[in-house]
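Reading a protein record of the kind used here takes only a little practice. The record below shows the convention in full.

——
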Amino acid sequence: MTGQGPIVPAAPVGRPAAGLAPPAAGLAAQVVVIAKAPVPGRVKTRLTPPFTPAEAAALAEAALADTLAAVACAPVARRVLALDGAAGGWLPPGYEVICQRGGGLDERIASAFADVRATWPSPAVLIGMDTPQVTPALLAGACEPLVSGAADATFGLAADGGFWALGLRDIDPALVLGVPMSRPDTGALQLARLESAGLRVRPLPELTDVDTADDAGHIAAATPGSRFAACLRSLDGQAA
């Protein structure tokens, strides 16, 4: 990527957060979820077939709802949704919503980091909407080393070679800009970028993204009480 100018913060839009005061025992950190609105034909296209676009969107909405619920229960002071599209009934209270900006995914991630830094320059962990199995404990584990100063970055690889979480103690969008995304070596390249910058990186457990129907089945089996698992069971029942 060439010709990238400075990242200019955007103003929050959509639903403002309700009660952003840090919990009594919370971490002075923020979790950012970067996501697309679950609109048929725009999300989870790799699930079609075997699912229809509407069914794939339903699974995407369930995965997003599970992710947002986990973040809502994490012991952090701020929760932000960097959204491509319009918010819907799946958005719980307690979130700030900002628009995604930029062309490629690297620019969108960098812009989300820049926007949250502009309003609160504290440690931030960014995750996507493809790991509905994420838990508040995993998120706390991604934030705590950044807040305590034990690490400069936390990083969770995905089983497909990407990454599901990137946490930064001192937010610098340049750590992401130009990293090739959506490739089997994206995670390795992003990790190399962090390490080449001299950051102390704390690894997080590897998770599986929902990219294929097989992935969906494995994740649903591992989280039988989740919205995602319930949605998949419903769709499987309709197909039977």
Observations:
- The chain has one domain: 27-239.
